[in-house]
Design a protein that fits this description.
Protein name: Germin-like protein
Oligomer: single chain
Strand content: 25-35%
Family: Belongs to the germin family.
Shape: globular
Main location: secreted
CATH architecture of the largest domain: Sandwich
Bound molecules: 2-acetamido-2-deoxy-beta-D-glucopyranose
InterPro entries: Cupin_1 (IPR006045), Germin (IPR001929), Germin_Mn-BS (IPR019780), RmlC-like_jellyroll (IPR014710), RmlC_Cupin_sf (IPR011051)
Order of helices and strands: HEEEEEEEEEEHHH
Radius of gyration: 21 Å
Keywords: Apoplast, Disulfide bond, Glycoprotein, Manganese, Metal-binding, Secreted, Signal
Number of domains: 2
């Protein structure tokens, strides 16, 4: 019993560091804030800061997410994000918030964020959301307004508005200033320059004609 008691904090610490090691966030800032200097020509990990004496409340506020996104595209979705351009005060803080608008029966196609986990909350409508783990197991859930779902860092995930008429709205928080996004279908069939046909034919077990059709459909 005593040995158990002694090893427990160590075990807990070990487990915690393993978990944290796998979902490491952006580096910790060394300042209270580093309001982004949009005019700077320096390229560093993040965006350089303006003089702290020049910082005001307006640097920490944005209405960027108040507007409905334009969902008139082949998938029927739109993503609007807070950025260092529309919300300079978020620079170096390791997070962004995004608004996702999805038209009736629209989708956010399977995609991944290489640098962030994402927790999404349905604000309006009915959403079918899900992700695929690295053993190709799928986890899905239907979300109603007020319900949230989490997509683990780097894993392929999707959102679908299961109502054919009403638009849906979700809001997501991601734990990186620059999560990055790769849409699986576009990364494979609409890359510039294109991935050679022979690779796509073998990878997807399809013909050259089918490769061309998918490319054309996706604007590749
Ligand atoms: C939405 O996007 C489409 C396609 O890009 C464009 O034709 C249309 O004018 C846009 N609608 C609005 C309201 O901006």
């Amino acid at each position: 019993m005593r040995t158990h008691f002694h090893s427990l904090p160590l075990f807990f610490w070990f487990t915690l560091s393993l978990i944290l090691g796998q979902t490491r966030p952006d580096p910790d800032p060394l300042q209270d804030y580093c309001v982004a200097d949009s005019k700077s020509n320096f390229f560093i990990n993040g965006v350089p800061c303006i003089n702290p004496d020049k910082v005001s409340s307006s640097h920490f506020v944005t209405s960027a997410l108040s507007k409905t996104g334009n969902t008139s595209n082949q998938f029927g979705f739109s993503v609007t994000a807070t950025t260092t351009a529309n919300l300079p005060g978020l620079n170096t803080l390791g997070l962004v918030l995004v608004r996702v608008d999805i038209a009736g029966n629209g989708i956010v196609p399977p995609h991944s964020h290489p640098r962030a986990s994402e927790v999404t909350t349905c604000l309006k409508g009915l959403l079918l959301v899900g992700f695929v783990d690295t053993s190709n197991r799928v986890f899905t859930q239907n979300l109603r307004p007020g319900e949230s779902f989490v997509f683990p860092k780097g894993l392929v995930h999707f959102l679908f508005n299961s109502d054919s008429r009403e638009p849906a709205i979700a809001i997501s928080g991601l734990n990186s200033q620059n999560p990055g996004a790769q849409i699986a279908s576009l990364a494979t069939f609409a890359s510039k320059p294109p991935i050679p046909d022979d690779i796509l034919k073998k990878a997807f077990q399809i013909s050259k004609g089918e490769v061309e059709t998918i490319r054309r459909n996706l604007g590749g």
